[in-house]
Structure formats: C-alpha cells, structure tokens
Design a protein that fits this description.
The chain is an alpha/beta fold. The chain contains 17 helices and 14 strands. The N terminus is likely disordered.
C-alpha cells in the first residue's frame, strides 16, 4: 500500500535531516543547502531560512524528482509558523495537488488560527481556482479556522469558570465545548455517540488478567500482517483475555462505514483468530474524514467493542480509561477526573493515541507534546499507574514520573518512525514494529514490549504495598 502524501510531510519524515549529500556537487554543502540547490530560487531561500535539520535520515529523498521535492518542501513549510506568509503567497502558484496537501496542514496546525489574512487568502484562492476539489478544500479550511477562533472565546470562559470554582458554569460550558470540538474537526459524530457509558466489567475483580495492545496498525501491509501473526502465535501458548488499540486503527482516515471491506481483510481476518474482544481508542487519522471515527464506533463485532470516544471499564484488579487525545474537550477532562477519583481498582491505566512524553526531539512533535503535557498530564500525575499510547511509529518506554509509567506501542504496522534513543527520559526506544502486553494481579503489574516477530524488547514490573 502506498501512503498518501499527507503522511509524508517534512514534520513526520524529517526530510531535511539528510545525512548524506546528493552527489559530488553537494558533498561539501550542508543538507539544507544541497536541498535548496534543487529547488526554485524563492523556495530554496525559504528552505534555508525556515527549515532546520534534525537527526532523522531520509536518504531515499535523493530519488525525488524536482517537482516531488518541491511539493514536500512546501508542505513542510506549511508546518513552520515563520513561513506562513510565504506559504500563503505561493498558494495558487503550486499545482492543485500540492495546495490540497498544504490546506490539510493549515486546517490542522493550531498556529494558523493566529495568521493574519489566512481566511481572505483562502477565499481568494477558492474564487480563482478552476479545480473543484481545491475550491471545497479552501472553503472547509476557512471554516475550520474561523471555528477555531470562535472556540478560543469558549476556551477562555471555561478557564475562568475553572479558576473561579464555578462548577455549574464549568459543566455547562464543558458540554458546549464538546460540540465545538466536533465543529472544529468538521467530523460527523452525533452527541449520543459521544456520551461515555457507565463503567463496565470485562473480567471479575478477583482474577488476574493478561491483555495485548497495539497502535498505528491498519495499513493492510505485510508489516501489519506480520505483527498480527506474532500476536496470534503468542496467544496459542498463553491466551489473552482482551485487547486494546492505541489509535490510528485504519489508514489513511479511519473506516468509510460499518460495511467497509477493510473490516474483513484488515481486522477480522488478522485479529479474529485471537478469539478476544478489543477495546479501541481513536487516533488523529480517524478524524481525517467526516465519518472515520463514527464508523469505528458504530461497528459491531465480537472482536470490537468501541462504545464512545472515551470510556472506562474494569478487568480483574485494573480499571482502564480510554481517552481521545486528538483534541481533548473540557467535558472529557471533567469525565476523566471524576472517573479516576471514583475508581476503587487496585491499578489504574489510561490509554490513548498521543504520548505525554516521547523519545522525540523535532519541533512539530514538541508542539503536540506541549499540548498533552498541558491538557492531560495534570489529570494523570499522581493518580494513575500507567499511560499507554502510540502515534510515534515505534516502541518505547519513558521513565516514570509522579508514579505514572509510560509505554508506547506504535509499531503495529504503519511505516516506522525514527526515534531519539537518547532523548531525556527515554528508558527504551526502538524504531521497530511490535506490540505490548500487560499482566496484572493484586500484587504486581507487568508491561512488556515485543517486536514484530514476538521477541521481547523491554519490560517493567510495577509493584505496590498492601492495599
């Protein structure tokens, strides 16, 4: 399967970290200079000015044609706040396919809300372009930006209500915030599908449990099938009780509906042989289409139980809390605070898509980590025992903080990411396909990471004193 260019932005792939020069002429030049020399003059200057090297190695980009390279650089510049005016000025001069990719970034990256003139520029492009797809994308992106700007007013009122301790106002505003998150995303998910059910039980509290978890897997590629086969092989020796997913369940933008043929080929055929039920969470790719998240929540199968974007259940001595991390509404924060506070389980484990801490150093990743640390971390710290996630296509463990242990299992089948093995707080980090397991009883909880063939990579045993 070939991934769409939306998955191949500079931020995700680290284009400018090319560690080997392209030919003899570029041998003495910096990677940025070597790249700029292959681009039109103004774009090359923009690359030198605003794009920076990091430690990722993408020598394969040497094979890109000049047109493909220009497209990737322009999409990368769309993720750079300082380059916003340049990108707006170039739109309309680029091929429509490139502008569509740029608009995808503009609609997602939060800094574009503060860029002066972005909405008039999109309206002007919509009026002038003969490409119908580009017209619709311009209108949708302008709507998203205007909605985000209005949403900021609600966010300020929520912060004031929380600061004042006004519980009534906070609850009212939080429900409105839930609706505005949907408006921002432009996704279709009615309110009754967003309401979390009451906590349910998967296995009796006096029994030990064993579960498997994976993220970033739904590609249909050989890598996904390899990881699935390793999980099935492990289960033959020691059966799992249930499974979790850590988002980006199906690329490029979730399922198209409950009758999407990929349910059979990319899900049931691969994980059905386990004979267990998975309790999924949403990733950012589920929100890249109108119906991606709704289709996954509406799907019904003995292998798949997905009641809402966020929900909680108990299994043995553990209470699990699934969260939706692409944009965390105030309603979700209030629900999670209350659910954790009311839990009587021995162990508390929260899982979702985006990491709170990660073996990652590039600037774009830093922005979403800042968001997670500001939004979710205050609810988790000192209150739960572990946070499990994906998003970075790798396997990792970060050092515990305030009693919370962090594990990443993003190697379920999507193209691998590079990891910063020496990043602050990294206990283990490997650019590898794989999955994790969690075993727990009253005395201990063990979380283990395995590669795509089921070979052990890392593990941690967490213990507690008498209850």
């Amino acid at each position: 399967m070939r991934f769409p260019r939306t998955c191949l932005t500079l931020a995700a792939c680290g284009l400018l970290s090319l560690s080997h020069a392209w030919g003899a002429e570029a041998a003495a030049a910096s990677p940025v200079d070597a790249l700029a020399a292959r681009l039109p003059h103004d774009i090359g200057d923009a690359a030198r000015k605003w794009l920076h090297e990091n430690d990722k190695d993408l020598r394969s980009f040497a094979a890109f044609s000049p047109a493909d390279l220009e497209r990737e650089v322009m999409v990368g510049l769309a993720s750079e706040p300082a380059a916003a005016d340049f990108v707006l000025g170039r739109m309309g001069s680029e091929p429509p396919a490139t502008d569509l990719l740029i608009l995808h970034v503009v609609g997602i990256d939060a800094f574009w809300v503060d860029v002066a003139g972005v909405v008039p520029a999109l309206q002007k492009l919509a009026e002038s372009t003969p490409d119908d797809d580009l017209v619709l994308a311009c209108l949708d992106t302008a709507r998203r930006i205007e909605a985000k700007r209005l949403h900021l007013l609600l966010t300020a009122r929520i912060a004031a209500a929380r600061q004042a301790g006004d519980t009534k106002a906070l609850n009212q505003l939080a429900q409105a915030d839930e609706r505005w998150v949907m408006i921002d995303r432009g996704a279709s998910l009615p309110a009754f599908m967003r309401r979390p059910p009451a906590a349910f039980r998967v296995k009796a509290s006096d029994q030990a449990i064993r579960m498997v978890g994976l993220g970033d897997f739904g590609t249909g590629m050989d890598s996904q099938r390899r990881v699935a086969a390793a999980i099935v092989g492990m289960a033959k020796a020691d059966r799992f009780d249930f499974g979790l997913t850590f988002g980006d369940n199906f690329y490029p933008s979730g399922m198209k509906g409950t009758d999407d043929p990929r349910w059979k080929d990319w899900w049931e055929a691969l994980y059905g042989p386990l004979g267990i039920t998975f309790h999924p969470s949403l990733g950012n790719h589920e929100w890249y289409s109108d119906d991606g998240a709704a289709a996954e929540i509406a799907y019904r199968s003995p292998t798949w139980d997905f009641p809402a974007p966020y929900y909680t259940f108990t299994a043995g001595p553990v209470q699990f809390f699934a969260v939706d991390t692409t944009e965390i509404s105030e309603a979700q924060i209030l629900w999670l605070e209350r659910a954790i506070a009311s839990s009587t389980s021995r162990w508390k484990v929260v899982y979702g898509h985006h990491p709170v801490f990660a073996p990652e150093k590039n600037a774009k990743s830093g922005r979403y980590l800042d968001y997670m640390q500001a939004r979710l971390w205050p609810v988790l710290r000192g209150r739960v025992d572990a946070y499990l996630c994906g998003h970075q296509h790798a396997m990792a463990q970060m050092e515990p903080r305030d009693g919370v242990h962090f594990f990443m299992s993003g190697g379920g089948g999507g193209p691998l990411s590079r990891v910063a093995k020496n990043a602050p707080g990294a206990v283990f980090a490997e650019s590898s396909f794989g999955f994790l397991t969690l075993e727990a009883d009253e005395a201990r909880m063990k979380i283990a990471i395995f590669d795509g063939d089921g070979k052990p990579l890392d593990s941690e045993v967490i213990t507690k004193g008498p209850p």
